[in-house]
Amino acid sequence: MPQANLKLSPHDQQVLDSIFNPLELSSLQTNNLIPAESDLKDVEPDTQAIKASRELELRAIGLSESGDLDGALELFQQSLNLAQRASVLNNPCTNFTPGQT
Asked: Taking the model in full, what pTM does it have?
């Protein structure tokens, strides 16, 4: 199949390369403006509400792992009330309905 003469952005070329050559990383360039996963930073502020929300989330995860889903759901809700954080919303237990097994 002849290769089309396309004018692709570096990002589009990287996407196509990763699809057609998933094991070959030679097309990645160091001057690329696309941030690597290791360059991404958590931009969450370090306030008292965020710290308390994280602590409640960790306790809720522990409860859910031990099987106390109703208790975990309550702590997840408290964590969300303190701070609307994506981490809390992405926990599978937050989609749990009380009384559901």
From this structure: 0.51
